[in-house]
Amino acid sequence: MSSPPAAHDQDDEKEEQDEVGSTPATALVPSHRLSPSPSPSPAPVSAIPPSPPLPTNPTRNHIHNLLLLSDSALPLGSFAFSSGLESYLAHSRHSHRPTTHSHLRSSSPHHPSSTATHITRHFLTLSLTSLASTSLPYVLAAHRATLLSNSNSDSASPTSLASLHETYDATQPCAVARRASLATGKALASVFDRAFAPHHQSHQQPHPAHQQARQGRRQQQQQQPTHFAPLWGSITATMGLSAEQAAYVYLLNHVKSVLSAAVRIGAVQGPYQAQGLLASDWVRREMERVLERYWDVGVEDAGQTVPVLDLWGGRHERLYSRIFNS
């Protein structure tokens, strides 16, 4: 006689409970929860390649000197000169006049600020061309003469370097530009004599550039010219810059000086716009253009190719009001 169905059900439930009780607890958890996803193990320290040794770069000192000479904080007094920009704006038919009229404050292409920026760019083109044709040959000639003097060549001497200053002085038709060149040349001689020369004397014989720098102030007292362009070429050669670097920084510093004057005059809308012009491809192309054009021009062929700049510079002292020396 068979047992009742209820008894069979109780026996089955008891067997299931015994099986569950004998099953490990981990078997009841899904496998994807028990085994977490593998995280990427950090690379061992030994697997990271070490930094290579710092290479010995013999031109590192030259780059350091190049950055020193291109610094806008170099105390040359160039902030007192506008390179003729102030007189040019005053005599230009489309001269920029700062205005407070609200109806002129618009974003149209004929806005005064747009016109002033165009005029500043035009003046920079003329000024770079004039500087390259009149002064750059003397920079390069002084640079070459200084290198020849350093190699103990009889073809170059401090006397020949001094003759470059005298020739440059005799070929300056504009008295205002001549005074500016003498003032910045005197400042450059003082900076080199007091700040740079002690670090470039080494154990060699006194360099011609050192002699020029030391005699710069005495030459001023003795009415002997010490112009900026020839002295720049001599000092840059002494400090290890190549002729191309010396010429390029010479032109770049001129552009920075003109743009700095443009900010103070109001010809450009603040330092950000001036820096934008300085960093533009247009300025770089203009500098390269004049550098290539006048690279092989000697001092005997140097001359003013933009005569109107001398007229603007000469009339600067006749302005009714001005904020720059020239």
Model description:
The protein is 58% helix and 0% strand. With 326 residues, it is mostly helical. The chain has helices at residues 5-22, 31-34, 60-69, 85-91, 112-134, 136-150, 158-170, 175-196, 208-221, 228-238, 243-265, 270-278, 281-293, 307-314. The protein contains 14 helices and no strands. Helix 9 (208-221) runs antiparallel to helix 10.
Annotation keywords:
single chain, 326 residues, mainly alpha
Q: Profile the largest sheet.
A: none
Query: Topology as H/E string?
Result: HHHHHHHHHHHHHH
Q: Give the total of beta strands.
A: 0
Please work out how many helical segments DSSP would assign.
Answer: 14
What share of residues are in beta strands?
under 5%
Oligomer: single chain
**Structural class category:** mainly alpha
From the alpha carbons, calculate the radius of gyration and give it in angstroms: 37 Å
Mean pLDDT: 75
Distance between the termini: 132 Å
- Uncertain runs with pLDDT below 50, 5 residues or more? 95-112, 202-206
Shape: globular
Helicity level:
55-70%
